[in-house]
Each structure stands twice: as C-alpha cells, then as structure tokens.
Amino acid sequence: MTAPKLIQGYEVVIGFETHAQLQTQSKIFSRAPTAFGAAPNTQACAVDLALPGTLPVMNREAVQCAIKLGLALGSHIAPRSVFARKNYFYPDLPKGYQISQFEIPVVQGGEVSFFVGDEKKTVRLVRAHLEEDAGKSLHEDFHGQSGIDLNRAGTPLLEIVTEPDMRGSAEAVAYAKELHKIVTWIGVCDGNMQEGSFRCDANVSVRKPGQPLGTRREIKNLNSFKFMQQAIDYEIRWQIEQLEDGHAIQQATVLFDPDTGETRAMRTKEDSADYRYFPDPDLPPLCISEQWIEDTRARMPELPRGMAERFVSGYGLPEYDAATLTQSTGMAAYFEEAAKASGQPKLASNWIMGEVSKRLNAEEIGIEAARVPAAQLAQLIGRIQDGTLSNAAARQVFEALWNGEGAADAAARGEGSAVDAVIEAKGLKQMNDTGALEKIVDEVIAANPDNVAQFKAGKDKAFNALVGQVMKASQGKANPAQVNALLKARIG
To answer: pLDDT tens for residues 274-295?
Structure first.
C-alpha cells in the first residue's frame, strides 16, 4: 500500500455515509406513494403523519433492495436484524423519532473497489441499514416563516456507512461515483442527486501521521460530485488552518455553500448516545431466509466488478479500461457490440474511452444518446484495420458521422455504409498504391538531403521529419507503415 499523501504535513481521513432512496412504489412502512414532485403534503398518509393508533408495516420490496445491495457489495446479509427508534425532535419529523436500525443492521461489512487514475483503491464498508426518511422544511415564499412538507416522510432509505478509509477528495469522489454506479446498476436507486435520491455526507478530519484520528466534521447532503470535491477540499484547508493557529476542532455538522465555496457550521454533532436508541416495539425483528437470499442472487444482473473481470480475461483489456467501460450498463453494452462486430476489442476500447467519451462529455449526454452507433464504430475500426483509413483520417470520418454526415449519401446510393460514404465524399481513402508512394518518397529524399544525412548519423528526429514531409505531400493519405518501410529501404 502506498504511503498517504500529506497536505501541509497532515494526513486527511474521510468516511462516508450515503443515503440511497430505494426504488419502491410505496413507502417503507405505509402504502403512500413515493413519486417525486407532488404538491406538498399530498403523499403523506396517517402512518406517515404518526396519527394515534397507526402502526408501521414493513415493505417487502425495500428488504429485497437491501438484499440486492448486500450481494452486490460482498456483504453479510443478517438472517435477523432489528429496527430501532432514533429519538430527536425536529419540525419535519412527525413522530419525534425516526425508525432506523442500530445494533443489528440488515447488511454488514462488504467493500467497494475503484480506480483513482490508474491506481486501484478499496474502501471497507461498516454496514448498510434500512430506515425511513424525514420530511422537508421549506423556507421560501412563506413571508419569513417556514413550511413543512411531509411527502418524503417514510420514504425508504438504505444508509451505507464506510470505514474512514479515504485519504483525499479525489478518493472520496471516486468512491461516491462507484457506489452510485452500483446502486443504479442493480436498480435499487435511481441515483438522481438533484432530487435527493442519492445523498452523501462526508466525515472529514485531519491528523499528523501516526497520531489518533482527529475530530471529524460532517458535511451534509452533498448533491453533486463537483460540489463534493469542492466542499471536502475547503474543509481540509479550514481544519488545517484552525489547528495551525492553535484552535481545537469541534465535532459539528456543516453545510457547503456552492456560491461561496465554503462550509459553515449548522449545529454541533451528536453522538449515538444522544439519540437514545431502543428497539421499536411496533416492529418485530426482520428475518431473511437463506432461500430468499439465494433466489435474489439467481435474479441479479451481472455486476460491474464481475463484468470488468470478464472484459480483462475475455477481451484482454487492461484493468483500467475494463473499469472505465463498466461505468454503466449502456457503456458496457456499447463496448461489447463494437468489440464483437470489429473483432478488435482494444481498439474499440480506445475509441470509446477517447473520441466517443470526449463528445459525450462535451455535450453532457449519456452513451444511449451517442450519435455514432456501436455497429458504425465497428465499421470504422474495420476500415483502419484493412488499411483503407489512417488514424488521422478515421478521426475525420468519426467527426463527420457524429455530425450526421454520410447516412443520406449511403441511403441515396442504396449500397455500402455511412462510413464508406464519408470516406468517398471526403476523399480520405488511404494511399496504398506502392508505385505512387515510391515516387513521393523519392522526391522527399531528393529535396531533403540534410535530413537524410542526419538520420544516417543516428538522429531519429530527422527521420520523423522525412515521414512528415511524405505525409504532407500525400495529403495525409499515405499509409504510415508503408512510408516508414519505404523510407528506410530507400535511405539504406
């Protein structure tokens, strides 16, 4: 394991608590709907409002989601887990307590592995427990007062808690992205951060190497990966400055203000004892049979980690490529179609991670909206392999295809593909006529005696200059491999 990077002599320690809203049709303990965007207080029933005489009833689908996540993370799924009451008073908490799990959570242990650059990291998980969400306080358009919307009260959540294994904002963001990928991949959460379906809290502390863990501050409700990195970086700098100035860090809950780029304290942080947990008398223990777990396992999709391993063993891809191409089911499917159709998995990977991803990122769209289908990319790769196109010309063809060129010409001619139509229309076919190429090579050698002499004296840059002259004279259509071979043969 590499030594942690230090910031001004301090080691950063980060742990995460992530609330993933489960994709169920109804709430965790009632039949009220969970759809986003309804008018305030129109999706809260008597159970959610904690009216006298109401009792919670466990939502089986929420338990199913917990089992799926446990299987995906390599966790232990408890055959018996217990619900507890987490007591605190806040306007948007109707009962005066939240139903959660404390001593015996449903999902225990597990890990999440990911890459930071080309370095593989693994974060250990403590637990993932089922709980209900609270309501929401509204502070706008109330003439200086606040309103309460209880639509979200009782919405099913899985809170996923890590060990303090991350050592910087880059690792923290990479972990959050990987967890986001997993929960959306297996379909337990839609991952919509703007709507609050995937909310991350980062516990950040700093310490001198070798010293005990420092006092942590919890940054609440980070709803974008960009803000997550900004908030953590600011908090790290702030804590170091406080310690360097001789001040102690006080445990607190803080919020990030994206307008100022700063965190600010919201309240002092409670410890678990402050919540006075005790078993909920209205809910029996949650019992999960081994048969239920195995039935769920049999219906699980191929997981990103397993798919990445298959891409390495089956297609010969590097681990980094495989991890990148399994960021979503759509990306993985696009790669497999292009790889199988072209017979060139590494080239397909290079193009998807390069030209395709560059345009997806620039236009902020997903792979499903890519304007060059996987089959078309495979045809383009085929034209590189059979010598029709140089790499530079292939990029021109790709750009034209992305911009919608070629399809109309191909349709009008009634033959060939859009790839071939673009090659033909733009005159990009690579020169493979040996006689014509030999003539250009001879002319370049005759016109550049100094470069020839320098190459013979052992200067490789002079040879590259000659190659460039040949490519220029051929308008970029010469086959680079042929150019290299002919030049070396001619110069001797």
So the answer is: 889 999 999 999 999 999 999 9
Structural domain span for residue 472: 434-491
Domain check: are 283 and 331 in the same one? no
The closest of 68, 63, 23 to 300, measured between CA atoms, is 68
Percent of the chain clearing pLDDT 70 (strictly above): 96
In a domain, 297, yes or no: no
Strands (E), 236-277: 252-257, 262-268
Rounded to whole angstroms, the Cα distance separating 478 from 470 reads: 8
The owner of tokens 């997550």 is 228
Q: Tell me, yes or no, if the pTM score tops 0.70.
A: yes
Which helix (H) or strand (E) is 484 found in, with range?
Answer: helix 480-491
Instruction: Please list the helix, strand and coil fractions of the chain in percent, rounded to the nearest 5, in that order.
Output: 40, 20, 40
Q: What is the pLDDT of residues 212-241, one digit of tens each?
A: 999 999 999 898 999 999 999 999 999 999
Mapped onto helix, strand or coil, the DSSP state of residue 456 is helix
To 10 degrees, what angle do helices 169-185 and 304-315 make? Answer: 90
Do 288 and 343 belong together in one domain? no
| Sign of the Cα pseudo-torsion (152, 158, 164, 169, in order) | negative
Asked if 452 and 470 sit in the same domain, the reply is yes
H or E segment to which residue 199 belongs: strand 198-207
Residue 415 Cα distances to 113, 349, 403, 406, 411, angstroms: 48, 28, 21, 12, 7
If one compares 445 and 157, the residue with the highest pLDDT of the two is 157
Render 41-108 in DSSP notation, one character per residue: TSS--TTTTT-TT------HHHHHHHHHHHHHTT-EE-SEE--EEEE---TT-TTSEEEE--SS-SEE
Q: How far apart are CA 4 and CA 81, in angstroms?
A: 37
Mean pLDDT of the chain: 91
- Single-letter residue type at 413: R
Instruction: Using pLDDT thresholds of 50, 70 and 90, give the confidence band for residue 465.
Output: confident
